[in-house]
């Protein structure tokens, strides 16, 4: 019995040792940010840092590739990085990518900044969040404020303050060699991938934002991926300029169909949902409200074209308004935030054609004679079922029904008749002109 107990204890101790060895390995939280910097991106990055802090990870690594984004969201991300318990590394990669504008500021805020070969960072000059052009005074104020913020980050991280300021005020960009070759450098080193980054950081002592020195122990570290939730992926995709533009046009089309054909339900529901998602995207993108107004004005002109005799001038104005509104919708110097003409031209022509077609069908339906009720009986053809004396009453068949009828002229049984009036349930008829045979 004693031997059996000793065996069980030995097995338990071995199992505990294995578990301790597995759990004792340092964990590196890895998250990929491949999107515009907006509130959804900020929520994702804050959540990754929070999980690393809660579970005692040794390091958080953000793989960053972005054309930029909103400054407010950038500040939220940087605040989370600065106050994180876990050291945070930003790696710009893989090769061929960049971290521009807001991405540059996030890189500067990280405890460790690294780049892959063939990447670049910089071009952090601020632009208006609404897409409207700032005057000289506003532009100088925004640039000065952002430059001061960038200098604060660089100074706390012992990075090149002068180059950081030039990235903001002069929109300078830097390759991986320029960033690491500067004195002091902009980034700490070049790494081929995340595993290479972890290997180079093992045993390195870094300085946190509060001045605390931390030695990273990453031997045999286990890299654990942290991915966006389903809702975050959807909202992040919606915030893409081209997706937002498509949602805006589809939503406008859906509501137009619903207004012209009330009770359709599906076009109205789909259109309203698309517009709500489009408005969410436009909140986090540098949108020009002039462009939005031009798009809606163009739709109105296309609708009026069918009702107002303009000989095509309203249609031309509507298409032109849609086209220039689409071009002006996103106002940003970044190519990734632009809506290309390859998308704008087909969408503008298709939307114009569909609206004109649908409105035309609606007008044609309104001009058609009624086929039901009292109006539908007028001018209907029928046949006399009994003779009708002038001023007298008889019976006729019309619309597949038998009616009481009166006439101002004599009508014989079997004569074709035409309804000329309706008085309650009594029809007024006259003989139909005889059809001559050829």
What does this structure look like?
The structure is a single chain. This protein is α/β, with parallel strands linked by helices and 438 residues long. The chain has 3 domains: 22-231, 2-enoyl-CoA Hydratase, Chain A, domain 1, CATH 3.90.226; 240-367, no CATH class; 373-431, OB fold (Dihydrolipoamide Acetyltransferase, E2P), CATH 2.40.50. Helices cover 50% and strands 17% of the residues. It contains 15 helices and 16 strands. It has helices at 2-24, 39-55, 71-82, 102-109, 136-156, 161-169, 176-181, 194-201, 230-238, 241-260, 266-283, 289-307, 313-328, 341-367, 373-377, and strands at residues 27-33, 59-64, 88-92, 98-100, 112-115, 120-122, 173-175, 189-190, 205-207, 213-215, 222-225, 381-384, 393-398, 401-407, 416-423, 426-431. The strands form 4 sheets. The chain has a 6-stranded parallel β-sheet with strand order 8-5-3-2-1-11, with helices on both faces. A 5-stranded mixed β-barrel has the order 12-13-14-16-15. A hairpin with a 2-residue loop joins β13 (393-398) and β14. α3 runs parallel beside α4 (102-109), α12 runs antiparallel to α13 and α12 runs parallel beside α14 (341-367). It starts with a helix and ends in a 7-residue tail after the last strand.
Supply database-style keywords.
15 helices; six-stranded parallel sheet; 17% strand; elongated; single chain; 438 residues; five-stranded mixed barrel; alpha/beta; OB fold (Dihydrolipoamide Acetyltransferase, E2P); 2-enoyl-CoA Hydratase, Chain A, domain 1; disordered N terminus
């Amino acid at each position: 019995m004693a031997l059996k107990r000793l065996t069980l204890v030995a097995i338990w101790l071995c199992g505990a040792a294995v578990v301790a060895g597995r759990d004792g390995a340092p964990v590196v939280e890895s998250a990929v940010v491949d999107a515009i910097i907006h509130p959804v991106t900020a929520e994702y990055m804050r959540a990754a840092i929070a999980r690393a802090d809660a579970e005692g990870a040794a390091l958080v690594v953000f793989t960053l590739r972005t054309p930029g984004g909103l400054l407010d969201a950038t500040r939220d991300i940087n605040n989370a990085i600065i106050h994180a318990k876990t050291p945070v590394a930003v790696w710009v990669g893989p090769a061929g990518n960049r971290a521009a504008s807001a991405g540059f500021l996030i890189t500067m805020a990280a405890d460790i900044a690294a780049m892959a070969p063939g990447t670049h960072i910089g071009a952090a000059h601020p632009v208006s969040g609404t897409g409207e052009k700032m005057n000289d005074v506003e532009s100088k104020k925004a640039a000065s404020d952002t430059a001061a913020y960038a200098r604060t980050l660089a100074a706390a991280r012992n990075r090149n303050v002068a180059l950081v300021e030039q990235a903001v005020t002069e929109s300078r960009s830097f390759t991986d060699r320029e960033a690491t070759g500067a004195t002091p450098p902009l980034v700490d080193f070049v790494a081929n991938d995340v595993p290479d980054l972890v290997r180079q950081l093992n045993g390195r002592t870094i300085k946190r934002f509060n001045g605390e020195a931390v030695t990273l122990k990453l031997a045999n570290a286990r890299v654990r991926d942290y991915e966006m939730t389903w809702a975050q992926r959807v909202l992040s995709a919606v915030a893409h300029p081209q997706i937002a533009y498509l949602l805006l046009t589809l939503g406008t089309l859906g509501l137009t169909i619903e207004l012209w054909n009330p009770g359709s339900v599906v076009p109205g529901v789909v259109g309203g949902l698309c517009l709500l998602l489009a408005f969410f995207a436009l909140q986090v993108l540098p949108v020009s409200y002039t462009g939005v107004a031009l798009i809606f004005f163009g739709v109105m002109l296309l609708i009026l074209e069918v009702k107002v005799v303009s000989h095509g001038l309203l249609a031309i104005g509507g298409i032109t308004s849609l086209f220039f509104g689409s071009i002006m919708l996103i106002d940003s110097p970044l190519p990734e935030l632009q809506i290309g003409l390859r998308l704008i031209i087909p969408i503008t022509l298709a939307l114009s054609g569909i609206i004109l077609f649908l409105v035309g069908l609606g007008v044609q339906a309104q001009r058609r004679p009624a086929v039901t009720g009292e109006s539908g009986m007028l001018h209907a053809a029928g046949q006399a079922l009994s003779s009708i004396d002038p001023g007298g009453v008889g019976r006729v068949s019309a619309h597949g029904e038998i009616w009481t009828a009166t006439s101002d002229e004599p009508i014989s049984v079997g004569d074709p008749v035409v309804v000329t009036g309706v008085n309650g349930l009594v029809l007024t008829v006259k003989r139909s002109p005889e059809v001559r045979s050829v």
